[in-house]
Amino acid sequence: MAEITAALVKELRETSGAGMMDCKKALSETGGNMEEAVDWLRKKGLAAAAKKSGRVAAEGLVSVATEGTKGAVIELNSETDFVARNPEFQKFVGSVTAVALAEGGDFDKTSAAAMAGGKSVVDSVTEMVGTIGENMSFRRSAGISVGEGVVASYVHGAVAPNQGKIGVLIGLESAGDAGKLEEFGKQLAMHIAAANPLWVSQDEVDTEAVDRERDVLAEQARASGKPEDIVQKMVDGRLRKYYEEVCLMDQTFVIDGESKVSKAIEAAAGDAGAPIRITGFARFQLGEGIEKEESDFAAEVAATAGG
Q: Cα(75)–Cα(286) distance, rounded to whole angstroms?
């Protein structure tokens, strides 16, 4: 009987797409024979993931969970929106989100953490591929926490409680009334879902991003033939507009359509009875950044017909 080494388990895992413990068991059951181990996994329905691993998974669900002063958001992808409406898939996504909440939203820790059945999140996803019949991917996770106050959340396009197309977390550090903070926090999370800021305030904006923006704006202004002092005033004005687009504090609050978010926070602090500091936010939109395969159905039919 061949020795079941870590390298052998790794090779089988890469070949079959099955989980680590399943691969180890398959090799043990087959005396270390690689081909027989693959067949063993296939018979158990555990190697199905390998055939599906090349398919693009850009649908699925974004899910959030909060618990007082902490919260987590994850994205778990599937190939089709149909699967996202599957109660079994939704229950699984909720379980992964609970693990992420316990791990502070850390992606690596969450991926490696054990779920209820004893398997890691990553291995459990692989197992779900075989169960559901589509390629899946635990793509990312994030966490937000505060020392005192609340972490509020909002899900847009919800298909199940706390699961949908866009998920937002925001941390409100404050000694104010928790109920008031929660209510206002949800409004802020709704704003972030709609306005998609990149930073909380101007202090957080990447200096390289600002320098690039300033250079572009300066060249655009100079192209108009204006004197340099006028060019600089034009650049400053356009930079203010840029900050209004990318900084939460400088955006117009979508809830009332008039106030700056910074002013809305001041008003909410008065209502809650204590100052409010935004510690950070996380916004996940389903499938953002994933390149989807474009399918030309007419061309596929023509190719199949040999035309």
A: 7
For 59-202+247-285, CATH gives 3.30.479.20
Q: Is 6-52 a domain of CATH 1.10.10.10?
A: no
The set of long-range contacts for 104-109, using a CB threshold of 8 Å and a minimum separation of 24, is 104/70, 104/72, 104/143, 104/145, 105/71, 105/72, 105/73, 105/141, 105/142, 105/143, 105/144, 105/282, 106/141, 106/143, 107/140, 107/141, 107/142
* CA 120 – CA 106 distance, rounded (Å): 14
56-108 pLDDT, tens per residue? 567 899 999 999 899 999 999 988 888 889 999 999 999 999 999 999 999 99
Does this model's pTM top 0.85? My answer is no
The H-assigned helical ranges of 116-177 are: 121-132
Range 271-283 average pLDDT:
97
- How much of the chain, in percent, has pLDDT values that exceed 90? 50
Nearest partner of 71 among 153, 10, 155, 136, judged by Cα: 153
Domain boundaries, the chain: 6-52, 59-202+247-285, 206-245
CATH topology of domain 206-245: GTP Cyclohydrolase I; Chain A, domain 1 (1.10.286)
Instruction: Quote the DSSP letter at residue 161.
Output: T
| pLDDT confidence tier of residue 47, bands split at 50, 70 and 90 | low
Q: What is the mean pLDDT of residues 206-234?
A: 83
